[in-house]
Amino acid sequence: MNRMGNPLLSPSTLPFGLPDYASLTDDHVREAADTGMREQLAELEAIAADQSPPTVENVLHAWERSGATLERTVAAFWVARSADTTPEREAIMADLSPRMAAHTDSILLHRGLYDRLRALADRAGRGEIELDEQDAYNLEKRLIDYERGGITLAEDEQQRLRELNSELASLSVEFEQTVTAGRNAAAVHVSDEAELAGLSEDEKATLAAAASDAGLDGWLVPVVNTSGQPLLDVLEDRALRQRIYQASVARGLTGEHDTRDTLVRLARLRDERARLLGYPHHAAYSHETTCARTTDAVNGLLGRLAPGVVRIAEREAQVLQRRLQATDPSATLEPWDWQLLAAREAAENSFDTDQLKPYLEFERVLTEGVFAAATALYGITFHERPELVGYTDEARVFEVREEDGTALGAVVIDPYTRPTKKGGAWMTSLVKQAHLTGDLPVVTNTCNVPPPAPGSPSLMTWSNVITLFHEFGHDLHGLLSDVRYPSRSGTAVPRDFVEFPSQVNEIWAWEPSLLARYARHHETGEPVPAEWVDALVASRQETGYHTLELLKAMLLDQAWHQSPLHELPEDGSGVEGFEAAALERAGVAFPLIPPRYRSSYFAHIFSGGYSAGYYSYLWSEVMDADSVAWFRANGGLSREAGETFRRSLLAPAGSLEAMDTYRRFRGADPDESHLLERLGLTD
Asked: Distance between CA atoms of 101 and 105, rounded to whole angstroms?
């Protein structure tokens, strides 16, 4: 095999082990994936066949060092395919996903490997060898993976499990590909400029460029991945708002981009797999390894919040109905009216964040906001390396250094939306920090900020700013990881803990001293007016709209993964009825606010790893709100507070039980009252 010709078959020689994207081809990915799977199975087989007494070195360390080629390949390919896909990359993903599922099954259903782990645990239990905290936790998690992976099933049941995992992997890729194509196809074409009243000239130029790229005259309004669409905040033409809203919420329900058959099949197969493994439903299987632990705990949190959140939304609707009738006495409030009227209400009675846009130029927000907050808290600094190539032409690589100048790792920033990029925003790890391997972390930050029109600056919405801070919180979790094992590095924590550091990082977007640095007018350089900052901070309490759209999506997720599905038609025709009944049953059917994601384009749960776990954002926000209270009492945006947070919560990553690290940091379980206050649910 000519390893010299394929940059993935050997460790990268670039700084920090950054993948050699300049020379990487799709053929390299195919070859390296094949080679990597063969290599790892051979390496693990050697561990299982070893007749010497099991030790940390010949079991845990050897295990963690296995599969290096496969790890490099999957990490490099996944983010490139998600951020800048092509038909060939989609074909690779469709081929690779079921094969990776089969590869994982080959490991988790290998009795010899399980016995080797069990023997190591038995030796430790007898006191023959000593395991430190990280060794013991890693061993415990590997044994749990085997027990949840079907090692105790009969042979015929294991075969059925393999079939289920393979089909689920293929269906997840199919769902994501169809959702992305449907999102692009849902863009709304506008031919009359008068319909765009409310938009700035720069915004219209961006839409005109999108139309030109699509081979159309006029303007093209792209649809983002959520139900709510940003331009509904400002568009004055009610008919156009209705067209955009309906194009958004109708995605995945008809035609070539219909996802309903796929999602029903996914839900049914997940349910079958859970029952095969001894669980009542997929949610119980999913929740077992989270901080919540049980379905009752998840349902309890969602159920406690639902009535109060609906009441807040109903009160907001009454205010907006009166505002609408002030200009049109016969009009009835509709979902496509909400965002515009709420923005106007905020402009008069609290603060309209749309006023900030001329002050939110991307480059300054990144360097004087996101990076500056990390420096103030953790002492780390960021230095662009333009000679290093990211996974797209628009991606930029920054070296990250400790306060004393030593190298810490690197971050790859890819901010702008494009038709080849999937929706939303995300962080990944290209290289995982680990003392065992000596690797420094390389993380990515991929967002969907609208690109600037030619010759214009990239101006962000306030929502874009919060998203950038949020995703960088994930980056910090990866960069500041300080663990032994790569499998326990960075964001390798329970799903309902992983959003916690990212949500905490959002608070610095609101920090007045930082706002004065990064929020400056893109033409004059003047800082955002101080009274605006005060009004912005005062308006931070979540609205009923935002909380209810999230809560509806969380409840839909639980419905799909807790409900018996035998009465649901297999062809997908019952999806809309199932969705409506689930929201009605949960007491959140309020029609003026759609779920943040309807089932037909809910990629988080049907292709993104959040199945039965979308509640995680809310569970993590309990810890987030409690931690914000701690920061306020302990110096705020300061090195001392940052160092405590870093060493207590970010550095341990997934090497210890997540809630134990939280209790060590806070001295107690998180106090839910801080979240209730943020949501406006205190009496």
From this structure: 6
